[in-house]
Specification:
The complex is a heterodimer of chains A (116) and B (109). Chain A contains no helices and eleven strands. Chain A is mainly β and 116 residues long. In chain A, the strands form two sheets. In chain A, strands 2, 4, 5, 6, 9, 10 and 11 form a seven-stranded mixed beta sheet that branches. In chain A, strands 1-3-8-7 form a four-stranded antiparallel beta sheet, with no helix packed on it. Chain B is mainly beta and 109 residues long. Chain B has no helices and eleven strands. In chain B, a hairpin with a 2-residue loop joins strand 6 and strand 7. The N and C termini of chain B lie far apart (38 Å). Classes of the chains: A mainly beta (116), B mainly beta (109). At the A-B interface, strand 5, strand 9 and strand 10 of A face strand 5 and strand 10 of B.
């Protein structure tokens, strides 16, 4: 199956700093990637849809100025958490959409963000 | 997006037992998916269902796409300790995935 990687796998930062998380599709091209957030013992909640060459589409309640998304190429999307605060601590997971007719998404392994 | 109703919330069973979990929705979906997530990792696709009424197996796993397109179930037969994890259903209409709240499965040897 298709492989999606994320970097870093975990990051700890101080409050007020910015953190960038990378999502890469390793063996396929993805014009669309998705960013999810998952709090402990909860489900995945879609934050935004990242489209190569255009602006991301954010879900209701997600601040676009706080969670900057850049889909720089057909294999890379980045999520930057700006001016991070402890409440931003969470598990961030990306997925990449394949070109199959079934709209399959493959998920990355996730990034654990802890803001002190 | 819409969150699906997934039950049970958790299950604690003995090795060898069968397991059943289900998801319901107030909306119809074109695709139902079942994922397993281990701690600290991303979800891994177990079974995908693309047609109402479809019954699909993957080893010890069997899943069905409800005829109304608003529900799905997943069965695991003869559970083993490595089945431990959180199982999520997801309904898909277009690109977006709508996830259930998950079923936490614990299997004792």
């Amino acid at each position: 199956g298709a492989v999606v990687s994320q970097h870093p796998s975990r990051v700890i930062c101080k409050s007020g700093t910015s953190v960038k998380i990378e999502c890469r599709s390793l063996d396929f091209q993805a014009t669309t990637m998705f960013w999810y957030r998952q709090f402990p013992k909860q489900s995945l909640m879609l934050m935004a849809t990242s489209n190569e060459g255009s602006k991301a589409t954010y879900e209701q309640g997600v601040e676009k100025d706080k969670f900057l998304i850049n889909h720089a190429s057909l294999t890379l999307s980045t999520l930057t958490v700006t001016s991070a605060h402890p409440e931003d601590s969470s598990f961030y997971i990306c997925s990449a959409l394949t070109s199959s007719s079934y709209n399959e998404q493959f998920f990355g392994p996730g990034t654990r963000l802890t803001v002190l | 997006g819409q969150q699906l109703n997934q039950s049970p919330q958790s299950m604690f069973i003995q090795e060898g037992e069968d397991v059943s979990m289900n998801c319901t929705s107030s909306s119809i979906f074109n695709t139902w998916l079942w994922y397993k997530q281990d701690p600290g990792e991303g979800p891994v696709l177990l079974i995908a269902l693309y047609k109402a009424g479809e019954l699909t197996s993957n080893g010890r796993l069997t899943a069905q796409f409800g005829i109304t397109r608003k529900d799905s179930f997943l069965n695991i037969s003869a559970s083993i300790p490595s089945d431990v994890g959180i199982y999520f259903c997801a309904g898909q209409l277009g690109y977006a995935l709508n996830f259930g709240k998950g079923t936490s499965l614990l299997v004792t040897p």
